[in-house]
Every structure is written in C-alpha cells, then in structure tokens.
## 1
Amino acid sequence: MKNEHLKTRILHPDFLFLTPCISIKMKKILLLSGLFSAVFLQAQKTTTENYISSTDCLNEDCSKKTETVQYFDFLGRPRQVVSVKATPLGKDIVTPVVYDDLGRQTRTYLAVPQSSTSNGAVYPQTPGMVPFPVADATGIYSGEKTYTEKNLENSPLERVLQQKPIGNDWNGKAVVLGYDLNTAADHVKNYQVTVSWDPTEKLYKNELQYTPAEYAAGKLVKNTVTDEDGHKVVEFKDATGQTVLSRKVIDAVKNADTYYVYNDYKQLAYVIPPLASAAALNSSAVDNTCYQYKYDSKNRLVEKKLPGKGWEYMVYDRQNRLVASQDAVLGSTQNNFAAKGWMFSKYDEFGRVVYTGFFASTASRIDIQTTINTMSVNPGNNEKRNNTTPIIQNGESIYYTKNAFPTEGMTILSVNYYDTYPPLPSGITTPVSIMGKPVLKQPGQGTASVTTKSLLLASYIRNVEDNAWTKTYNYYDEKGRTIGSYAQNHLGGYTRTELDIDFAGVTRQSKAYHKRLASDPEKVITQTFTYDHQNRLLVHKHQVDTNPEEILVQNEYNELSQLKNKKLGGTTLSQPLQNINYTYNIRGWLTKINDPSHLNGKLFGYEMRYFNPVNPNIAPGRFTGNVTEIDWKNASEDVLKRYNYAYDGLGRLQDAVYSEPNATVPFNNNYNEHLTYDLNGNIKTLKRNAFPASGSTTSAQVDDLIYNYTGNRLTKVTENALNDTGYEGGNNTISYDLNGNMKDMLDKGIQSIQYNHLNLSNSYSMQQTNGLGQLLNSTVSYLYRADGTKLRKTYSSAPPRGSTTTRITDYLDGFQYSYTEGGGICLECRTESAYEQQAYKSASLVFPGTLTPEWKLDFVATAEGFYSFTENRYIYQYRDHLGNARVTFAKSSTGAPEIIDTNNYYPFGLNHISGAFSTSGFGSFYSYKYNGKELQETGMYDYGARMLMPDLGRWGAMDAMSEKYSAWSPYNYAVNNPVMVIDPDGNDISYSGEAAQQAFRAYVATMSTSSETSGGSSFTGFGRAFGEDPKPGFWGRVSNWWDRLFGRNKGADILTLTRGAEVSRVVEVGEPIRIAEFFSALEATSVAVGAVTLGAVLTPVMMKDPEYNWTRDLPLTVPVTTTADESEPGEMITLYRGVSSKAKGSMYFEASQGIAIPNGYRQVAATWGPHSDMEAHAGGDNLSIWTSWSTSKESARDFATGVAMYENGIPGIIISKQFKVGTVLPNPYNPQEAEWLVPGVVYGAKVEYVLPR
C-alpha cells in the first residue's frame, strides 16, 4: 500500500474563503493547516511561494518515493509543478502553468526535464505567454513548439473554437470546432416511430415509418469537429439533448450518416447505419442493416435485433438483474446443447454472480418473465452457499443451493466462490504463506480483522464440448493483494503461481509451477524484475527449471521516460543478442525501431512516417496519427522495402503502394493492394499484386475481387484475376447461421463450420488438394472452456490412400503441447486452398511412415517471444507497432543471433505471396505472426473471440461489440485501418502505439456516436465510463430500481440501509428529508427481496460479459440486515472526486486541503436553503447538500484534467476518501459518471495531483 505525506505552505489564504456560512470551520482548518505546515518547516521548499508537496512512498522506509511539489500564485492558481528526481537520471521534471490576460489557461505545456534537481524548489519561470516559460535545460525539445493552444470564443461560455496541437509541424493544423443550428441544406431526416403496448408480450412495440420528413431549420443543435486533416464529423442533437444524427463527411458529395431514432418514451428504438440511411428503407432493409430495440414497462431492454442476426431476448428478476438470455441459435435446436434453451446467471444476496449455465426450455420470454415475477418462494431470487448438500452434476459438486430460477434442467458452466473457500479437491491445500508473506485468512480463522470476506476465492469453469472442469483458487496477502493462485486444469495437472510483491505492489519475482498431467514432471518458470527509483522496469530475467538464467530484456529510458533502448537475450548484461533503439517525435509517436537504412549488424529496422512521407505524391501526409509511410528491412533479404498508405475521408485504408527505394526501379508495385468500401465499411473490391511470375519483371495481379452482400453478410466473392495464386475464387455462395456466423467457405474448400453457444467456431470440415494433387479430407476441431479460452486443437487429414494423420495441440496457461499419431502421406504438406500456400516456404513431401504417439512440450510464451523446450533455447521476435512478428531469431550454436523466420505482410495480415521467406509452422511458435496471433490450418488467424480472414480483410463472425460501433459493419476488421488499429482479441479495437493511444478516445467518438436514453437522461458517444456496455436500457434498469426505492422527484433520504433496526438520520439540511416515505418503499422492497443490493444490476451477467468498470470498487457485501460499521473494511467504499485547476471560486484550493463543500452551503441568502433532490442535482441544480464523487478514479481524472468538460490538458486534483456505505448514495439520475453523492462538508480526504495525459 502506498503511504502519502502531504506538506502545505499557505502564505495568503484569506482571499480564498468568501462564504461567511463556513468561515468558522474554515478558520479551524486553516489553523490546522498552518500547524501542519509548521511541523514540516525544516523541509519547506521555499519561503516565498505557496506550495503543496506530496510524497508517495514506494518502499517501507520511503527511501524510494515519488515526490511532487505544486506551486501556486497569489490568486491560488497552479503556476508550476515540480516532479522531484523523476527522470531516469534522477533529475527534476517541471511543468509550467500559464494564463492569458483574462486568466484563462489557453496553453498547456509539456513537462520539461531539467539538468539537475533542486529537491523540490521552484524553478525560474518567465511570466506570460512565451514559448518556453521554463528553460529546456537539456535541449530535449530542440526548439519545438512545446504547448497546445486553444482559441476560445469571446463569450461567457468560453467554448473552444480551435485547438492547435504540440509541435512546429502542427502550427497550421488546428482542430476546429463549430457550434450552430441545423439548416435546410443539412437535410437531416426526421424518422418517426409509432409505439404501442403489446398486452400479450408485455412490451412496447416500435414501428418505424419508412418515409421520413426532414427537420426544419433551427430545430437541432449542430456541432462540428474538423480534424487536423480537414475531415469533418457533424453531430445533430434535438431539444432534449439526444443525438439524432452523427454525420461523417467522406468527401464533397458523400456522407456517412448514422441515425438514432427514439420512440415517444425517449427510448432508443432504432439505429440506422450509413448504408441503410442512404437508401429507401423497407422491412427487409431494416432487418438486414439496422439495430432494433424493445422495452418493457419498467424501461428494461427485453428484445433486440442486430443486423444480420436473429432476435435476442432478455429476462430479469425482481431486483432487475439479468437472469436469462437467449439468442436465435439457442432458440433453436441447432446448438451445442442440442435443445432449445436459455443461458442463465444466478446471484447471491449481494448481487454477485455465483453460477451460470444453460437450461433447456421451450418457454417464451414472457412465460419465463411471468414465472419469475410471480415466484412466492425465494422472491428475491438469490442463491446461498451450501457446503453440506451440494448440487451434483456429472460427478462435480456445486456448493450452492438451487432455489433461484431456474431450478431444474440446468447445465452449469461456471461457478464463483466468495468469502470462504469451497471444500477442496484431494491434493489441494490453502498455503499458509507465499514467498514469505502470510496468506490472508478466512473469516473465523484467528482474530484478524481483515479476512477474505468479499473476495473472489475460487472459480470453476467447465469445458463446452465435454464435462471436464478447470478449477482456480486465488490467494491474497494481508492487504488484500493477489499473491498467488492454483489452477487445476481439465486434464488433472496444474499451474501454480507465486508472486513476491513489494510495498508498492510491484512484482519483484514470480514463479509458475506447471504440469500438464498430475503424473508429469513439474516445470518451473522463474521471472525476476528489477526497477529504477520510480519503478520503471530495467531488467527482466527468465529461468526454466534450473537452466541458466536468461536476461530477456534490459530497458533504457530517455529523460521523458520513453523507452529508448532495449537489449534482448543473453546471460550476461554486457552481451545481449540484439540491441534495439527507439525514436519518437515531439508528440510521443514512435517513428523508428532501429534504422532500416543502416542496420549495422542488427537484424531488423523499421521507420514510420505520419505527416512527412518521402513520397507525398502517392500518399499525402496525415496529421491525425495515421501512418502514411513505412520503411523496413530485415537482414535475411537485406532489401529496403516501403509501403505508402492512402486513406479516404473516414480514415479507411484505400491504397497500399509497395516500393523498394534502393532498387533501380523503385516502384515495382509487387505487393500493392487497393480497396473500396460501401458506406458501412464493407469491402466492395480488392485488388492485390504479388511478386512477378517466373520469367517476368512485372508484378502479377493475383486478386481482382468483387464482394457481394446481403446487408453486411458477405454472400459471394467473384475473382476476376486470371491467376491461380491469391484468393482461390470459385464464385460459391456463403451461408450463415441464425447468429450471423459464416457456416462455410466453399471457395477455400471449407465444407462446413460449426459454432458453440459462445459463437466460437469449434469444427471445420475441409476437402482440398494436397501437394501431390490428391484430394485430401481434413478436419479442424477445437475444445473451449465456457469462458471462451481455447484448450485444444485437433487437426486430422485423411488422404485417398493411406492412414489418417492426427495432430493435437494443447494450450495450457501459456504452455503449448503437441501430439501426433498416424502416418499418412505428407503430414507437413500445406492444404492448397484453405490458406495461401504461396505465401510461405515450400514444404517437402514427407512420407513419415508410422509415427510413435507422444505428447511433447513445445514451448512457453515469454515477454519477448518463446522458450522452446524442443530446441532448448529462447526464441526472440522483432515486432512492429502492431505486434506483428517481423523477424524471429535465436542464439545459434556459435553464440551469435541467427534469423529463423521472417514475415512481410499485406495490410490486412496476409503474408506476401511468393515472398518465400516465412514458415507457416502449424502447431509451433512459427505460426504466431500477424498481431501475434496464431495462423490456423484454415488460413485464418485466431484472435480468441473470432477468426480473421486475412486474404479477404474481414471476420467470419459477428462483432459482439457491434452496438458500440453501429456505424460500421459488424464484420469489418480494425475499422478498415489495419495500419493504425488492432483488435487484440476480436472483441474490441485498440490503437497501437503511443500516438494511437493519445488519439483513441477522440477517434472512436468520430467513428460511432451511440445514444441511449433511460429514465429521461441521455448520454452519447464513446465517453461512457462504465464498461462501455452498449445495450440500450441498461441504465434504465438501474434507474427503475431506484425509482421504486426513492420515488421520482423526491428529495433523497440519507439513511443507514438497515431493516429490522432503527433508522438513523445522518444529516438534515434544507427541506425536511422524507424518512417515512423513503423507508416505506425501502421496507417494501427489502421484505420482497430480502436485501437491498446496491450492486445488483452492476455485475457480470453472462460468462463472456466483463465486469462493469464502475463496480470494481463497489462493495457488494452490505445486505439490508446489516448496519455498516467503519471497523469492517468490507462495508466501506472508496470514492474519488476530480477538481480542475480551472474550477470556479475556491473549490480547487479546498480540494488541495482535502476538503469538499456542497454548493448549497455557499449561499449567502438564508432564505434559499440547500435542497436534497438527487435528480435536480444531476440536472445541473447543484445548490444542494451534496458533493459529487465517483467510484471510478478514471472518471475523477477526466474531471480533474478537463476531459469531461472537453478541455484537455488541464492539471488538477483527485481527492479520495473511504465512506461508510449507507451514509453515501449512488445517484440514480447520473449513472454515466458512476456518481455517488456525499452529504455535507467532507474533510481529511487524500490529495493527489494529476497532470493531463
């Protein structure tokens, strides 16, 4: 745990407090502050400046620490922040803060490393708006423009009109913001919905009118953002603040318009993506291309239909928790359970998911909902631990009751155990200590006040395709930090981990003990980590069993803490295998990995250019972070290669132009690609070149593809290139299942594809030609856990003559095993059609004869590649900014590095055809290539959630997050920008590299503006801070519960949430608090459900649904029958409050003292009085008894640094404090900020100063 020391010096405090109603209390605080400052007088940084010094101890004696000193001017505004000895060389970093003549912070400066340390003393700072307020003592910025600059409108609103980024090259490339009303020329369609109540299904039916009128001029608010490259995004909102149109301007004549259509109850009823909104709508078009939603009377989403999928249904219990869901495949018998049914989740009284699974049922949604609504036994629908009479399924004991719905017909797939461990299987014991640290005890074990109560202690996950389980047990230290685990795999072996973590929670050493089978010899992986004085990783060592310890990596940083140099491999620090240098531009964007023009003995070099390509006539420079040119060279080929990338107005890749700059004819176009798209981002055409055919000097066009669609579903690919390499062609029709998953790909010889209930492909049947021209029947099957983890792959090939050969690959906690049996012809021959054979080295025909079946441990993954058990050596990889494996190397028998594989890629991941330098290596580490993913025998890359087809540049299955990116096809890969964007697991995109991370939030906001309305509040865009759950109506479920609890438009009551105990008032100010009215509703709810579950709807609802972010710090252990006690940490909640340095009045100074004062207390006129209305507070009338806090520290950071007010680049303060649950309450009218309301004045909060990222 971190300890923080706070030192404060206040020279002129009196001006800061203008509110007489709190002056007496504040005087006391000031006296205490003065005393506190005097205690540390000997450590004062200066006697002429206001300052606050904060220290985070990184070890027990605080000899290793982070220290920050913030100086204030005589108006109480921050003027300089000094990070003491923060650079890798132990020098100070100084961030100046300046204001214009009107006191506005219109410039935000970069932190400036210094050439020494002043131990926290203030640095000379030039007043006013100057290029360098603080001297660039080390010359690290070399005369660059080191600040962002905002132009504000000349009005009290002070809205940003322009923002110029950091860097001289961006001087004329401002982001421009416009504020206006719509005009007739905008042609905004006004879609209407007719809504009616269906008494049978008990939901609101929405009927879209297909012929919309247009909004009259002046009816909508119009906000425009023009980025650095001149591309515009225009958003139109109605009078209620709901987004009705997000328009991305592609060019002068074409827009991509996404419409959001609401019914009379302000519920989101339809989302109409660009492809649909540009054409005439009908029922077929709506089903194929639009998003449709239906709600019940409690504003809960109960039915939805995504484009290309069948209808999905949701059922809730009386606590508004999602308890059952069904997609179209589960509603049929064509699923892995071979029965119609539903996925279910069961909860305990604290709203924690205890077990999930499938139950067979032909009942409809409304039938199940009615059953749950009318349950008289266990109306709260909760399960309880039962260690004496467990549920038995296929020999497995489940230590819970089965009193919640459903009670019969269950196939349990996952189980979670909290608070105490379940009865342990034979051979497993809970350790007393791990690496010298005591393991946290369970309740009742000893007298310790802190126990495992509320912690997740064990998780059991069943396999989907068989009945075996993986059982994982977690161990914690006495501070509640994870220090170990034991995972018993489905085969009976285990992986046991141990962590040695220091005072600050940083891992110093880790050990992993692993067996595939219980009878196997144990493998031990030991990793050791060394850090500098600010906990930057310096050295990472790796050891297998008792082998010599390998130095995986040595890191060196520049004075901005950017990785400057990385040394890979070796057993001594002075003799690494490779030395890799990294270079960045002023924006922090990676520009070089080594120098491809001069390798100088290095195995790989890579250079990225954004705005300054060598060939701007082919692809003009981009200032938004898009890469326009890449140079690379590997030592195997020793040829400098280049790609130029051109994009359209939506940032979609249009052209990849290949050249070899040092060649006699540089532009040989050998590996060009050209793409076009429809408005949803579905690829319409793709042209691809390859290395010249034998005897030719001209690049060969191997693909000229035309894609045919029904909605977003690819139904056929027409190949017009007269070339038998590249995409195979065949013009065959592609079919889909009810969930939008591709069922076959006859062009590639894939006869059928089957999926499990997680929409993961678990079986492929192929009929293809082998290297001898013979017809080869083969299959690929997969075994998954119910959480989607891949455990096994089985590849079988059966030639026309000879025996079947089977190769099995096991995936166990990073260890990969292989097994081969049979001896058919050509075990290592590559299937001709499923993947592009010409992209890899030619395989020799192999007649292995009869093979001896044997399981072999092949390799284990490391941070920099792999350790090969079969070769008994470490394998390293050069990876580019996307994580693509470019060069794979290892130490040779002579001790020198040797290249064992190289890869050159087309943009969407296909290896260069006829390059002949790459090894496909199915089942080995060689197969981990594009984005670091494993290439399959089908030619697809396995990302975890979906399989990518690199030759077609799209997925074969629907995007589970498609509602988040509704303007895009659910099958697109990386929003068609694979040069800048990756999809780490097939579920959601992520930007690659520092440049992309900086731009991520803004970029995604331009790609998709979703709008959701629940309970009268509207929120739009990417900026939802709570798990990014896209399902409309989710927060309606939260709001609905609180409506019943508090009643709308009523002053909220501040209560200790107890039943069967006297209700105590915590505070009474302003209007009388309605205790009787509130408790009546509370009592009715608690009698019905047995507990007021604060987190009831805020927990994972199904196996693959991640935990909502804002509940991670939310205690779920306060049943109604318990009175919160501060002595029990499980019943406390940590809240955060962000205050910007631009906050009005004295709020910022108060925050610097750990104080939060409600605005309602600041009123001078006693006749006003603060109110206690939560809804009014959320609506902007914050003259209340409340201050706003959050369970999300990131949300607080957004407010502290201005992000939440669209004013990036502002320093601020985050204060945090633990509160007793029941004295603070979540605001049901402002869930999008994870807002909790705290009554009265708060003192003694922890203070943390934060800088913009």
## 2
Amino acid sequence: FPAVFSSRIAVLLRCLLWCAAGLLPARSAAGPLDFDLPPQPAADALLAFSHQAKIEVLFSFDELRQVKSAGVTGRYEPENALVHLLRDTGFAARRNGKGKFVVTPLARPTGSIKGRLLTAEGAPARGVRVALPGTRQAMTTTDEQGEVDIASIPPGTYRLFAAGTGFEPLKMTDLQVLPNRVLTLDTQVLRAAEDLVRLEPYVVEGDPVPLRPFDGSRASPGPQRAAGNLDLPRSGDGPLPYMIYDRDQITRSGVVNLNEFLQREVLETDARTTGQDFNQGNVFRNSVFGGPTNLKLRGFGADETVVLVNGRRMPEMLTGFSNESDYRAPDVNLIPLSLVQQVEVLPASASALYSGNAVGGVINIVLRPEADENATEVAATYTNALGGFGAPQSSVSLTHGRTLLDGALRMRLNASFIRARPATEAQLGFHHGRIREPESLTDAVYGATPTVRGADGAALFGPGTSSLTSVAPGADGTGGLAAFAGRPGVRSLDLFDPPGGMAYSPSSVDFPYGRRQRRAVFVGSAVYDILPWAQIGLDVIHARTVVNRGYDVLTGDLALRADSPFNPFAQEVFVSLNETAPVLGENYSEARLQFSSAVLGLIVKLPAKWQVALDTQYAHNVAKYRGLAGVDAGRWQELVDQGLYNPLRDTQVHGPPGEFYDRALIYFGGRGRFATLGDYDTLDAAVRLTNQLLVLPTGRGVVNLGADYRRNHLAGTEAVKRFADGSVADESSQWDGRTLQRFSLFGELQAPLLPDRRRPHWLQAADADLAVRYVAADTSRETNVAPTLGLKFDLAGGLSVRGSFTTSNRFPTPQMSRGVSAPGSSGASAPEYARILDPLRNQNYDILASDAIDPDLRAESAITQTVGLVYQRGETHRARIGVDFVDTRKTHELVGLDPQMVINLEELLPGRVVREPLEPGDTHRAGRVSSVLTGAVNMAWRHSQSWNASADYAWTECLGGSLEFYGRLVYTQRYDRQVQPTSAMVDELRQPDGSASELLKYRANFGASWTNHGYGFGLDGHYFHSRILPTQEWPSQGSDQIKPFWQFDTYVQCDLGRWLPWDRARHRLRGQLRINNLFGAGFPKYANESTGAGAQPYGDWRGRTYSLSLTATF
C-alpha cells in the first residue's frame, strides 16, 4: 500500500505504460531474442526491454529511475536479459500468474545505531532530538534513560546530530553502519548551552523530514537572540497547560492569514466566523477598522486575552473616532504566516507572566529564528470557493536570509502580499430566503426599486384601489402614471442591485460577507555579534492595508408633493428607496491602515551563565478613511421639493443628479479627501536578567527577573464631516485622546522541587514554575500584585500530574478616546447609530447609542486554578493523552456593554434604555427604543469551569511513513454570572440572558494523517455543539437553540522537488491541495446573526473551498 501511494503520480505513468504495453502484439518468449540495451536509468532500460521483447513489465517508475541498469547486448532469453539488466540495482524481476514480469526491490541487510546521552551532571538527557540525515528514521528523541536506538539503517557512512533545550548541539561524523551489525556509540555528555555561542554552519543532506512532525512542542527554540523571543521556552508538557501549534500545522491549514488559523484550531476562541456586523449610520465600525474579534479565550472578552509577538505585547488597533466599549484586539493578520514558527496558547490566567489583562489567557506568536541562513523561500497560497462562484484569497511571501562578516551578522528580509475578496449575497443567497412581507401597509420598504405609499393610506389609482405601488425595474421616472401599470399593491421586496460588485447594506444583493483587502507587509531583521559576550538585534515591520466594502447604500423616506412635476398621482405620496453614489465609484469608501513597529534589543552575557537583555519596542498605527458619512435628510428633501431629484426612478439603473453629490451627501473630511481617524502609538521597554542553567540545591533551574514599562498614546481626533462645498455638517464632532503609562516588576523561577537523590524511585521528576508581578500605573486603583504557581510531577510509566494557581487583578481599561461634551452635558459621549434586535417587539431597527463614562469603576479580581493529567509513552508507537480542568472565579467583573447587551439586560439595567410611548393601535408590549447608554460596568461575579482534553497517537514506522491520529476537545462545564448583588444567578450555558454570546458547551477537532518523506494526506474534522439561546430570541429562531454543526476537511501534500532536476539538498519544492467543508455542510439557522444572514457561520462563509499551496526553498 505505501509503495503505491508514495508514488501517487508515478502510478498514473505506470498505468499509461501498462495500457501501451497491452497494445503490443503478444509474442512467445520461449526462444532467445536480440537485445541492445546500453547502461542507463533502470526505468528507461525496462521500457526499452518491454519494447524489444514485446513483454509487459510492471515496475515503480519513481524508484527505478533513481538507479542505473547494466548494459545488455546480444542474444538472451528474456528472463536472463532481465537478470543481467537489473544486476547491482537492488531490484529483481519475477513472473506473475499472467506471464508478466514484476520488478520488486530486494530485501537489503541493514544495521542499527545505539547510544546514550547524559547531562553534565550525569543525569539522562531526556527528550533530546537526534537526527540521522539520509535515513527514513531522520528524526527521533532520547527516552527516559537518555538512550537512543535507530534501527533499519542501510549500510553506509553517516553523520549524527543531537540538539535539546539548554544544551549545545552535538555533531558526530563518519559513523560506519555495517549490514546486520549494531553500532554502539560511546556515551556522550552534552555541554550546557552558551547562549551566544556561534556554531559552524552545516547543511543536513538527504531526504526532507516528514511533512508533519508528531509533537508540535518539540521545536527547539535555540539560543536566545537579541530582539528575539523575550519569553522563556514553553512546552505543552510543563506545569502550565500550554497548547503548542507548530509551523507544520499552520502550513497544513492552507489559510492566508493567522486569525483564520487561530479561529479554526484554538478551540478556546470564539467559534463564530467574523464578518461585517452591519450598523446603519456607523459607516466604519467593524467594517473597515476592527481587528480580529475571534481572540476571546474561554468565553472572556477580547480585552482579557493578551496577544504577544515574541513575548512582547502586540499593539492594539485603535481609532480616535469611536464610542465603542469594545476592545480593539490586535490585528494578528499583520504577522506574515511565513514567519511564524509556532503559536503558544495558555488558556488560563497569567498576569504574573505576561502582565496586562491576561484573565482569559495568552497567545504568544513566536517568529522563526534566523535558521534559514543564505537561503531563499517563496511561499504562495491560493484559495477559492467550489460553489461555482469566485471569492478568491491569495498570499505570496518571499523570505531571504543572509550571513555576513564570517557569521557575525545575520540578516533576514521578508515581503508578503495578501489579497482577499469576500463572497456576496448574490453568491450565497442567505438574505433571499428571509424576505418577508411587512406587517403594516404604512411600513417603509427599502427594496430593489422605490416603494410608493399614499399619505394617510389614500388610494393611489382611484377609489377602492391600493394605497401602495412600486417603481417598475428600469423606469427613469418620466413615464407618468402609465409607468405603474400592473403594479397597484405591488411592493418592491427584492434585494437592491446597484452597479458594481459590492454594496454595504443587508438589503442589497451585493452585500459582502467580509472585506475586500489588499495588504503588503515588509519585515527586516538583523542580529550582530558585537563581541563574544554581546549581541545587538533589530526587527522592523511595516504594513499597509487597504480595505473596501463597496458602495455605501443610503436609505431615504421622501415626501413627494401633489404639485411636484415628478408626481403622477395628483396627491402627496411617500417614497422609500435605496440610493448610491455611482459617480464616486465603488471603492470610494476606503480605509487605509499603516502599521510600523521596530524592536531594538541588546544581550550581554555575564559570568556563571547569567545574561542581561535590554529591549525596546515602538509601534505606530495610523488609520485614514475616505468615504461617506451619510446624507442630510433635510437637504435631500429640499432637492425633491425643488424638482431637482426624482425619487420615482429605478435607482439601481439611473443615478442621482449632480446636486445630490454637491448639496446632500456628507463626506468625512471633505469630498475626495482622506481623514485621519486614528493615530495611535505605543512604547514598550523591558530589561531581563536571566539564567537558564542556574545551579540550585535541587538541580538546574531557570530564573527570569526584570521590569517592564509601557506607554500608550492616542492622539485626539476632530471628525469633521463636510458637504461637497467644504461647509461643515451638523454631525461633526471632536474626540479627545489620552496617554497611559504603566510599569511592572516581575520574577519567574522554573526549578526542580527535589534533588535527584531525594526523589523516591516512583517519582521521575518534580518541577515547579513560580512567578509574581507587581504592576503600578497612573492611579492607585490600577496597581496590583499577581502571583502564579505551577507544579508538575512525573510518575513512573509516563504519567504526569500538574496543577496551577494564578490570580489577576484586572484594572478598568480606560477608554482611549471619548467625544467632547458640551458644557453642562451629562458627560456621555456623542451618540452613534447602532442596529439592535428588540426582544419585546421582535424587530430589528436602528437606535442611538452613547457611552456613559463611569469614573467609579473598580478593578476586578480573578482566581484561576488548573489541575491536569498527562500520559505519554512509546517511540515507534507514540501515545499522548492530556486532560486539564480550569476553574476561574471573578468578582466585580468588568463588562463592556454594547447596545444589544443593554437591550438584553433591560430588566436589570432599566436606566440605560429609553423607549418611546406606545402609539395608538400598536399591539406590542412596549414602544420602540430610541436610545441606550453603553459603557463599562462592574457586575457582581462570574464563575466558569471547563475541561481541555487532547489525545495523540503516532505509528512512526507504518508502511514506510508515519500514521497519526489526534483529537482535541473543550468542554465548558459551567459559566455562571450574577449581574447585580441582588439579582438572580444566570446560567449562561443552559438559560442564557444574552450577555455571553457565542458560548458553546462542546467544541472538538479531530483527524488522521499519513506522511512519509515525500507524500502526505489526511482528514480533519470539526464539531460545534448546539448553543442555547436567550428566551427573547426564541420567537424569531423558532427554537430554543442553534443546532450542532460538523465539518470535514481533507488534504494531500507532496514533495514536488523529487521530479525536478536540481540538487535536493539545497532546493526543495513542496505542494499541498486542501479541500475544506468536503461535504458542503450548510451552516445552522440563527435568525439573529449580526449580518442578517439568518445562519450561524462556523468556518468559511464561502462554504466548500479549496486551497492550493506551494513552497520553494533554494
């Protein structure tokens, strides 16, 4: 089986050869034949033999082309000719039952290598990676006794390399392996690593390593470098329950941006796929400036997850023109996927380790070190839908590394380019199935063409006729009453279809489920060894992103007087319509985001393995926007009254007059200008005193001491909205910025609890991780102390027990900007429009929302405890099972209320909701909401409990490759919250109130794969459990829950370089084809989904997609 599969491409060639051979006339092979076969590749020689002998030969073209045949000239029996031809090739031919020859490899005698690695103290060096290039067993690790056993090695001369965390790499050469013999190496003692040691470069030749290693946490971090990863090396098997996602997993995912990978693989994140949350009137909220919102670990908010890059805080994406209480999460898509080495996720509180609001957890993105010296890598990924429409996403990345000055200077340059075009409503059809006839004849309808209704319900076409009609498709508004023939009582309910490909409105057929983006990222890094004991490093990144979302769709409800020249009804009518500005172009509304960051680091090596690291990071992002701020309703109506604007035309086909652009439209900053809506910068400085080989009474440990300083500054913004003539519109407002400063002192110690001589025989190891951090800020209420303690005990037989205790005193995150209030006002910020679902009326509509700034917010306190078991065992058959229980309790929980949450909690927060009185004849329970007060508030407490489980199995010698199975499960057992001390406790899992949305009880990933040195294939599965909905959403949903969702993906990988005539030791080409949502599973129904699609988007909005990836190294 593996031989056939490992030559997947060659199978096709062989099939063609068999078919061709079958066309040859049959001939008896009883007598000798004349042969003229010179020495040549064996595959070509066999083809020539088959042609000359008129006999079919079955063989592996891929394997036989690698060896050279002997020459055969003269008269031979065909069977003897084959014996001579295959002499010294390692292959032999035999006849099968049908008279054909089958060429198979001869069984070759092999040898093996055994040895043992010890630490400087004489203890076994466990888990050290050992590489033997040129063999199928290219990579293995030492066992619990430090021993390594590499079997089935073809005879020859080899080199062996060993590397492990905290040790200098070991290199052994000229190892002679003899057939049927065991080469026993002398016991080797690994030297402790000198962090700034410069090694002689070498190239590992031979077959590439398997396409996906079993254990993602095995990646060796290498020596710490200046401006490199500031954090200590982390492992999935330590006292704290880290999850490690390695580079091969990222490549295997086939995505073009990092956020999509995190959403898919990190089960603790928000399961919902991000799209465009539509808010009429707020033209840029989440649609152009919002960072990824999936980074919410364990159901906590985005501001409770700390995102790091190489151990440093990744700057947030902030604009100065926003009332939102929502935290603008860092945009992880600014990090090129080609530069990511691994992602470390700690789904537990960790303020002591990482400062900030690390209540939900921490995500540390570790970049690739300068390991690819004097090499160039080109990686490209293209993905698109398989549903008969185009919504492509693509990325191209070029990375080049160079070593200069005899290895003292190491440089790397990277350029990455990403393009994405979202799917639209025309392609997906979510809204088409949700069109409903309005309940009342007086309701305004905004459809494909304008809808007309008589004033006070008056008949439009004479007594007894309908009071409603709509403009015929294609009408130009000059056809009089005849243009409405056959349309009495007909309302335009179809979706609006303006010119172009995208239009930002859920009532449009071109509504985009996402953003059209163009992004270019440039990264440069350099590390220079100033002296043998000093190193300086510099990392620079600059990114430019352009975001479009298509035409802005403006809605209007205009009165057309009876005496208007456009009015054929001889009475006053009201016209509701959608309008665009086609003269400005589809991409007029455009956001441009520029992000720049520079890290300067210095490492000084001190005696006794100590080192000092000084580090500074400066980041700056500027957000600019050109677009429409809306339309002035009064001026729009004036154009109608003056006979300059005809509302009775098909606005999909016929654009508005020039006066509409000049007098009614409102522009940010002015027509054709880009307005600066955000100017945000951060300055981080850190000093570290580290010793990763500290000699303690209990053994060798790691200590990390230091201090951090962080300054955030958001410049004030004047959000000027102007008419085309430059005059200022009434909606213009001014926003203040703010500067925040914080510093902290911290220490972390990783060490054995007991010396080896004091440990009982059944206890293999006992390790501890202790950390504490003191944080001070501008105000005393933001000052806190946060400790962390983790313990792990390794028992005999591969079983480990671990647990941790962490605290977090999360201070109130102050708004970096707020609208400037007029003297004597209440202090609330300027209002903005937001769309909500009113549960008392079961209606969606727009309201005014403004933030109420509470100066008396208290810091919340959180305690997280974890306990877990890890079992791992085996070499050829490797198994690992891990289970961790996480319990978090919070008091005075800080919650940012968005408009919908305020509506959902109206009973508990009645003072934040303002409703209009019920109108006569209105049968609803309450009047419409006119405005709400959002902002941060303290809730009483929250208690959450969850289980994280993982299982991995690998058979490393399965049919010439590695067979692997994996499974991940997150089970949220409890998620309770009390809003106020006097209110009832709410079970957000079973009886939610809507304040903790997107919370799933179960979520799982699972899959299987088989890989060898040249090929790989696999199947991945994803499961999303059902979600119970708040009672107010049951009527529209028609159920109390969102149904479960399953998705299956498949992929195949191949080393394409094996077919190219180049040096495989220096040049490689790998490819992957991946199909996501293989069976085309449809998203489950969710009537109140924020885009109005009526479906809960798990996975890609596009449905079934394919992804093609190529990576070339030279």
